[in-house]
Structure formats: structure tokens, C-alpha cells
Amino acid sequence: MMKTTKIFSLHETGMRDNNEDYTVRVNDHCFIVCDGMGGHENGEVASRAVCESFVATLRDVNPEYFDQKMFEGALTVAYNALDKEDSSLNRTMPGNKKMGTTLAFLYLNHRQALMAHIGDSRIYHIRKSETGETSILYKSSDHSFVNDLIKSGMITEEEAARHPKRNVITRVMQPNTGKRYEAHIEITRDVKANDRFFLCTDGILESVDDRRLCNLISENADNEAIIKAIFDLCKENSRDNFSAWLVSVQEGVKGVAPDIDTKKKINEEITVNPPKPPHLRPVRKWLLVCCVAVLFFLFHTLKVCVRIEKRKNMPNIMQYEPTQEEIDKVKQESIKQFINEYENRNQN
Questions:
Q1: Rounded to whole angstroms, what are the CA distances from 310 to 40, 297, 313, 319, 320?
Q2: Lowest mean pLDDT, pick from 38-47, 127-136, 170-179, 260-269
Q3: Nearest Cα to Cα of residue 216 among 246, 237, 189
Q4: Of 10, 88, 263, 295, whose CB has the highest number of CB atoms within 10 Å?
Q5: pLDDT tens-digit map of 66-113
């Protein structure tokens, strides 16, 4: 079982009047961050509804059995909960702006780390080497207008940070729209002890870019110190709500992948003792079936031939023709019989 430790979070209003972010720790394996939108209170309703739905669905699940299909089912339940909240809100407050929320989701178990996101809330998988060098193994790709421009090569990341449409997202969880966006799912088994996972809303990203995040982790061994440094930066610079989870892995996935020497050894064993081609078994099976079919055909043919030969040796009664002598003899016997019967009647 993968174990987590040194778990710290942020959930701050920032320079806004209310906090539309929502964070939840389902258990020691599952962490969620949502960034709501849709006007005063509506965004908070959306983010809370999604998070609480995931909690209700996954709270009692055995982490050993969690997989992608289970996440997809939980996401469908969360959409249903969002639809229900929206319908209820429209009955009490008709004409409200359509609410919605982003999603950043992390689940760790003994087999893998599953990361899923919708919108521009981000997920990082970070590793600090023994030499102190910090690298980002995975960074989720934002579903946003400016990120599409970056990927097309039209603008740089520096230009995206100042772009007037930097807050426009292209994928979001919204209720009762007839279209439910799928989450982008990333699964990795390359998880080692002391790896860190960082989930955050875009309010964090206003103050902390990739380089600064790596620097903070390199300079601080303790997660509490890292979170405090992030809080200080965002408090001074972030205009939006800012929320995050920082999770360290105490025990990683066992048997992730063989190292170079192990791979070499396996390849040598395959070369020295090559296995029999897997296609031989079905060929032998079909060959046996064909032999049985041929023997059955020959036996049936022989049986038919014997029957035909027997019929040839049987006398053909319909083709027999009596001789003239036999006909005359029959006539004479018939005449004698008639005369005898006539004489007998006259005597009586």
C-alpha cells in the first residue's frame, strides 16, 4: 500500500469577497481541489457539490480496488449532483448565472497514481533527487484559451500570463448543459518515496510558476515550510482565491519497472531460451480437426459404395420375361383345370 505523509493544504479567500474554491481530503489516498465560478455564491455551490459527491462515492471504497473505471463512475455521480443543485437553485433563484467548477483529482494506491483534471486547476508530480535537484515529472495541461495558443505556438508562456483572456477556460464541469466534459486522466506507476504531488487552483499560479515551485521544494525539506512560503507569495500577489494540496509519498509503488541491468538480463534469457512460437498450438489443433474430417468422409464414402454394390448383385424382378413355352404350359394347365371342373358339375 502506498503511504502518504506530510499533508498540508491551503484554502484562502485572497483579495475576493468570498471563497469559491473547495478542497477535500477523502482519505489518505484521495485529494481534490475545485475552483467554482458563476457569480456570488453560485461557484461555491458548484465546487462544494462536486467535492462532497466524490466524498460520498469514494469514502468507503477499498483503495486496493480503485481504478480508472471507478473514477469515471464517481465523476458521473458528481455531474448528477451538480445537475440537482442547479435545478434546486433555479427554483429558488431563477435567472441566475450558470454555475460551474474546475476539478483537480489525485488518487494514490499500491499500484499507481491516478491524476485527473478538468479546467485550469493544476496537478504536479515532483521529485527531488539525492543531489537536491528538483524536477517536474508531470504537469497537467490547462484546458484554457491561452494554453491552446501556447500549444499552437502563437504566444509564449510569459505572454500568456499577461494575456487579457488568460482566465477563459475551455473545459469546465457545468450542470444541465447537455454536454459533460470528460476529465483528462494521467496514470503513472513511477512513484517513489519522497515524491510530492501538488494540486492547486489558478489563484496559486498567479504567484507561483514552475520554476519558483521547484526552487521552493529544493530550498525547503519540510512541506509545512513550502506551504507557508506559497501562502506568503499568494497573499501579496494573488487577486483570486487560492487553494492547494501538498502531499508527500512515504512509500512508493513497488516493482515499478526493471532497471537497465534487469532488462538486459531478461533480454538475454529470452535470447538463450526462446519460447515456442505461440501460433503452433492453434495450427496443431486445426490439423487434427482436418484429419478427423477426412477420415469421416472416407468412411462415409466406403459405406455408400458397399450399398451400391449390393444392389447390383440383387436380381431385378421387374426386368424378367417368360418364354413362349412357359406361356403355353400355363395355358394348357388352365384349360385342363376348366374341363375337370365342368365334368364334375355335370356328373352331379
A1: 102, 21, 5, 18, 19
A2: 260-269
A3: 246
A4: 10
A5: 999 999 999 999 999 999 999 888 777 666 678 999 999 999 998 899
Residue 347 has pLDDT above 80, yes or no: no
- Helices 42-58, 68-92: crossing angle, 10 deg rounding: 140
The answer, as to whether pTM is greater than 0.90, is no
Could you give the C-alpha distances from 306 to 199, 300, 301, 302, 314, in angstroms and in order? 86, 10, 9, 6, 13
Is residue 103 within 8 Å of 36, Cβ to Cβ? Answer: no
Examine residue 67 and state whether it is found in any structural domain, yes or no.
yes
Of the candidates 123, 300, 342, the residue with the CA atom closest to the CA atom of residue 213: 123
For 41, 152, 183, the CA distances from 148, given in Å and listed in that order, are 29, 6, 17
- Residue 258: is its pLDDT beyond 70? no
CATH number of the domain to which 37 belongs: 3.60.40.10
Helix locations, 176-259, DSSP H: 202-205, 210-219, 223-237
Name the residue with cell 475552483. Answer: 35
- The whole-angstrom separation of Cα 2 and Cα 193 is 9
